[in-house]
Amino acid sequence: MSTVLLQFLLVLLQAQAAPGAATRADILVSGGTVVTMDANRRVLNDGAVAIRGERIVEVGPAAELRARYRGAREIPAAGRIVLPGLVNAHSHAPMVLFRGMADDRALMEWLEKYIFPAEARNVSPEFVRAGTELACLEMIRTGTTTYCDMYYFEDVIADVTARAGMRGVLGETIIGFPTPDSKTPEVALEYTAKFIERWKNSRLVVPAVAPHAAFTNSAESLRAARALADKHGVPLVIHLSETRDEENQMRQKYGMTATEWLESLGVLGPRTVGNHGVHLSERDMQILKRRGVGISHNPESNMKLASGAAPVARLVELGIAVGLGTDGAASNNDLDMFEAMDFAAKLAKHASGNPAALPAEQVVQMATIGGARALGLEHEIGSLEAGKRADLILLDTGRPHAVPLYNVYSHVVYALKGSDVVTSIINGRVVMLDGRVLTLAQGEVLKRAQEFGRRVAASLKN
Ligand SMILES: [Zn+2]
To answer: For residue 301, how far is its CA from the centre of ligand 1 (angstroms)?
Structure first.
């Protein structure tokens, strides 16, 4: 018997002796407070996460895992919180280049005098590339590992996202007027079909179909969008009941709410994400529940544009998947999910007059496994469990605003900041280590963004 065969048999025997137990890990994150966000909400003090390839192989006590996975590259996490990577359930990534361009204005004036002209004069593939690089840099630095996006030149966004090592559910905007890259919604639908073909086997990019909203699309476009999503089994992303004004438009035009109208067209179904859901009726929420639609809640954008407060507590009560998002940076003005968590918790309390509304643990859930559920990715991401993709972040808890620590969920929502994220691993790849992003050249990204900022400012002068 050859030695190779003997070794092979020995490995087989070992595998039988410990069924299911992995014997090798590439990375061992060990010694931190591991917040799993699994079904039992297990929190391990002095815990560890073992990673092999793209996936988590085991989560458990640090001492045990250190003994079992000798030889793995160790990332020490003592004094750190280890959290599932955050899921930003709604964004328009390249809009970071419009950050702070026009604030404190009424929604229609803001859109018509600033955002639409700035987009018409500036949005190009180069603009989108520079903007998405800046957005990915900001998201990685502040703990987001997956984001859901809707913009133009989405193929460029997908390319940058995959290069940056981030996970994205990405969709090209389909809307009933000319955009920087599509003269008609039909062209945008064709673009989407090619986009899906190109990205459907990606490990990081989940292509989606993204009709902008009910009030900005025709019945034909919306039906075609649904058919395309069904054909490829991909998510459908749409703005839903963001403002009272759009709901009034829907009632005048169709005598129905946006949700009722989309339901009548057969657009709603599982793996559908409605962005905002601020002005939903009880009947709307029942429809969303029945159809398995998820909602992305964007408290900062809703507050800044005075859109209102979404009925988040009721959505959660109904068992609807609710994720948390930042929306585009033009209406926020950043992509920091720690701020989004803080605002979500406080807005729910402020709006309801109930300080017990939306407790911290529920908000952390929305930013992790809740967002994963809303995007239809709960079997792959959103919690730290064996078998799932290795998407996780490490937070420094030694800074003045984080001391002392009584409750880890309270800390994550109310005390910690995006800048406390020190290390990030996405799909088993270390994308940031001890504050240094490894997948993007920060200096160059910032320089290009500054240059585009100057061009945007000049374009608005005329
Ligand atoms: Zn939006």
So the answer is: 9
User: How far does the centroid of ligand 1 lie from the alpha carbon of residue 449, in Å?
Assistant: 21
Cα 327 to ligand 1 centroid, rounded to whole Å:
5
pTM above 0.85, yes or no: yes
Sequence-ordered strand ranges (E) for 325-371:
none
Distance CA 47, CA 60 (A): 6
Separation of CA 302 and ligand 1 centre (Å)? 10
Calculate mean pLDDT across residues 241-253.
95
Q: Rounded to the nearest whole angstrom, what is the distance from the C-alpha of residue 397 to the centroid of ligand 1?
A: 32
What are the structure tokens assigned to 108, written together? Answer: 């229609």
DSSP labels for 119-156? HHHH-SHHHHHHHHHHHHHHHHHTTEEEEEEEESSHHH
pLDDT at 462: 66
Taking the centre of ligand 1 as the mean of its atom positions, its distance from the CA of residue 325, in whole angstroms, is: 9
Burial class for 111, CB neighbours closer than 10 Å (0-12, 13-18, 19+):
middle
- In angstroms, what is the span from residue 113 Cα to ligand 1's centroid? 18
Residue among 305, 255, 246, 299 nearest 107 (CA): 305
Omega before 84 within 30 of 0, i.e. cis: no
| Cα 290 to middle of ligand 1, angstroms | 24
Segment 46-74 mean pLDDT: 97
Give the pLDDT score at 111: 85
Residues 6+ apart with CB under 8 A from 69: 22, 24, 25, 28, 50, 58
Run of H or E including 180:
none
**pLDDT bracket for residue 19 (50, 70, 90):** very low
Q: Distance between CA 275 and CA 294 in Å, rounded?
A: 9
CA of 27 to the centre of ligand 1 (A): 37
Closest CA to 304 of 333, 325, 283, 280: 333
9 vs 350, more confident: 350
352, pLDDT greater than 90: yes
Residue 21: its pLDDT value, please? 53
Q: pLDDT, tens digit, for every residue of 187-213?
A: 999 999 999 999 999 999 999 999 999
Residue 268, amino acid: L
Mean pLDDT of 376-393: 98
Indicate the helix (H) or strand (E) that contains 77.
none
> How much distance in Å is there from the Cα of 54 to the middle of ligand 1?
31
Cα-to-centroid distance, 443 and ligand 1 (Å): 28
Q: Which two tokens stand for residue 231?
A: 């054909």
Residue 109 confidence class, pLDDT cut points 50, 70, 90 = confident
